[in-house]
Input
Amino acid sequence: MLPEEKARVKIDKQLTDSGWNIVSRDEYIPNLSLAVKEALMQGGKESDYLLFIDNKAIAVIEAKKEENFLGIDVAKQAENYAVTPENWYGTWFDNLIPLVYLANGKKILFKNMLTDPDGDYIELTEMHSPKKMLRLIGMKSEYGALPRIEEKGLRNCQYEAEVNFENSIRKGHKKALAVLATGSGKTYLACLAAYRQLNYTQTGRVLFLADRNNLARQAETEFKLFDRTEKQQPLNDLYTINRLTKPDKINSDIVISTIQKLFAVLTGQKIDDIDEDEEDEKSSLTLKTILILSIATSIDAFAVGISFAFLQVNILTAILLIGITTFVICFMGVFIGNRLGDLLGKYAEILGGGILILIGLKILIEHLFG
Output
């Protein structure tokens, strides 16, 4: 590998670490924050890297091998590119690419041609991100500051969902639906999407809705502990995150709520924390309900017990076998029920009831005609 090629490998990493997607000029992807290699300039010349946000050139990078000290001749070459953009691609300012960088893989020098064209170059410790470059030129972008998503640390389904979501909103779609399997990390994906929208776009606040209070509590904890941020800070240190237990908490950066509580706040109804336990109780099985169900499902066990009284059976052994078998099958039923419940929703209860009716009919027919 030639010295300049080795330097390019390091520069590529510096760019990707700062959130840039690197492509060749034949692989241009609209609406992404891109670093285009060997981009065409006027006079048939090529810039080593030309950086685009919102399909407009924002920076030029002149790359050299490590041994090059990035002197005046390199600076003149880069600055000439900055003032001679092609007229067929967009620019943030007429006939000017505002930011200039000189890089050799070991050192990065920077100049803002917009605010200080005659000033000295500043040495950087890292390449500027899309968000930083927009700040340097005093511009805003709806989604242009969104950096590339690092796949490492994400499940494949989470990565694909976030990439597709951001591509969708860049195209102007205001609604998106992520469909992921149970246990695939949907709440974590919501944390990631919320952070990226709040930090890199003009999004002001995020609302996370849950259908039950226990899920809202879990979501609140996960949002607060989420730390896949620029400096690995917990999300709770960067934004105010609150469950909607009182009307004033609706002004938080991230609001987590049940639909009932949100409706109450929006319609001016009174809510307080005590109501949460009542809501959860209504949405779950009460002790009374469980007792009735246990009696109903134990009628057949009662009948079997009476039968044992007329047979030569070791009662202790029978009780142990029946108890263990019932426990295992009940546990399997709960596990399968959780899965089917997510897939079938309200129809899961209808399916379970139908199965019980069929079992009852089978027993009745056997006793009547067996």
Notes: The chain has a mean pLDDT of 87. The two ends are 85 Å apart (CA to CA).
